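Quick start: what a row looks like.
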Amino acid sequence: MSNAKQILSLLRSHAEGDEEQFLSIALQVAAAEARQGHRSTAEEIRTAVETVRGQRGDRPTVPIAFAKPRGDLSSILDMRDPQIRVDDVILSEALRSRLDAIIRQQQKRTWLREHNRTPSRKLLLAGPPGSGKTMTSEALAGTLRLPLYVVRLESLITRFMGETVAKLRLVFDETLQRRGVYLFDEFDAVGGHRAATNDVAEMRRVLNSFLQFMEEPSTTDSLIVAATNHPELLDRALQRRFDGVLEFGMPSDEQVRDIVRRHIRPLKYPRIAWKSVSKSARGLSQSEIARAAEEAVKEAILSEKDTLKTENLITQIEARQGMRTVFAKEG
């Protein structure tokens, strides 16, 4: 029999119009029934949930908006409704394979819990700026049909003793109550070495608290994603807290072609010299190449052309390389 907390959670999610949370709790009930030996009841609940999800994709209704954070959390969490899926992100085969495994575990999480196992839900994304970390976080949320909550570090971290830890507690409490993807971007601001020379006692307490909160069990299976451009700055104690570390890099020549093709639609490109384009794009991130392609498309549209040439692309790519040179100069 479902406990009172689960019933209250079901009623609360129904009142807030959070259908995905409602179904998630229903699956938790199914898992609890299975653990008690009531397998037929558990299977009936799972089948009912899958039926609802299957019908939801076909019916012509207005989608229910995700419930936004309230109270103190409204200034700490920035809720975003994901617009992309993992299929929309250009990734290496190794990265895509690992993401697919994480998605599969999340989608079949009730099966794992019936065998006293938990899905991977704590991820560290490491790589240079613009390599696709934030985009991948949104894509994970979109694929799992979950809201993306971006933690605002400027609101989380304060100079008052104990306040940052208290706010961090609020965030982790929310991960336990409302399933979603919670993104800590620029995570090195929180997870830096505790022995760093520029560290202060308060930030050591913040990191220690973060480590403790990461160890707490969760029945909601929210995904906690930390992204950093500087993994070398992170405290080593964090390594064993994450279920997986995904390393992002600069795009390969093949990925450069895929990025460009995706961002120059619907223009035609019959005679693009891909080797020249890839060579000129070396060293640029996925987002920089995408922006260069989009600028080339804008120029073509304004010139009333429906075909893109190699020189148009290379001009915009070289402009991006020039921007890097400007920022690399010492003052």
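That is the whole record. DSSP finds 14 helices and six strands in the chain. Residues 4-56 form one domain.
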